Amino acid sequence: MSDITSRGYANADKLVSTDWVAAHLNDDNVRIIESNEDPLLYASGHIPGAVEVDWVKDLNDPLRRDYLDKAGFESLASRIGISPDTTVIFYGDKSNWWATYALWVFELFGHTNAKIMDGGRLKWAEEGRGLTREKPVITPTSYDAPERDDGQIRAFRDGVMQHIEAGGQLVDVRSPGEFSGETLHMPGYPQEGAVRGGHIPGASSVPWSRAANEDGTFKNAAELRAIYLDEIGLNPEEPTVAYCRIGERSSHTWFVLTNLLGFGDVRNYDGSWTEWGNSVGLPIEK
Amino acid sequence: MAALPAKLQDYLDDFSFIASREERADFLIDIADSFQPVPPDVATKPYDEAYRVIGCESEAFVWAVARPDGRLNYFFDVLNPQGLSAMALCVILDEACSGAPLEQVATITGDVVFAFFGRDISMGKGRGLTELINAVVYHARQQLSVAVQE
Description:
heterodimer, A: 286 residues, alpha/beta, five-stranded parallel sheet, B: 150 residues, mainly alpha, 2 strands
């Protein structure tokens, strides 16, 4: 943990180290949660005692394009055996990209006692720490969740439109090719494609992965400030919106700006390019 | 149009009976467990970038070596130790395409990714796996064009 606290983060308490997790594997007030892009990874081996939260199966409404509702979150929380007081630790593949997405959804339901294991699954494995295929036996809990609060950390299309009309700060965290409009979508994957390429007017391009080191850990605060403040000129005091294609990569940037750099008002626009690039009449820049 | 390679069709038939996400994952993990990287007599690290699968975040490489009968033996490596899905697909493609009629290999399309991995994989994951298939198909078509020229 000392390494994390020395990096100058605004809220270092939102990160825990692999050492910390190893020391809390049997802590009844801590639930370790793996959340990956690759659906095979958890089943192939996970941190002992960890449960899985899947971004498709567990976090999304199966019918509407939206996240799970209050009842769905209560059911998920019960299945993974947490109460509102439980400290949940997320980790996963892709430099914790999907772990931060899951954490962001949990915070929509007010479960802010949620942290990220720095370095994610890769760091744990490369340190030679144990992985198991044995799924933990979880005693279901009763979780009384509030209604999902979309008003604080989530952005919607109309709000983004007002935001850009007011000259607000926008961060496009997709790849440079997507930002420029060169890349639209893959044939065969229209569900995440768009009929127009480019970016939301006024957005600055900072691919999400620039916030991560090669080993999946987060860069320190000085390095992050150099990117987001010095390079593209974001003001931590001003409202900021982050977006990508469906809101998963931008949740990583949301986590960085909110918790590591201490921005006061950051929203993740999960409609992102699959909504903006398909909507009739919305302004686009290339 | 040529049929799919028989072993690939067998795999597709097996996967068509899968009823749950957990069953699919277990099946694919079992397959991935038998993954063997390219032998050193075919390629050694650092690999020639010409054999890298563009767009595959699991850092997959594909080699094709012509057999005396003109067909191809395929070899693979996946450098990302967490690239389990890519490893599973490499095993399937090796078993299905090595030694198979080139005309059959050349007909494989990226749609089979959905059959093996389901329709709820991410766009990035789907792209990488599709490009892996495309690399195998590319080698088959190249070999076919060589045969025509000869």
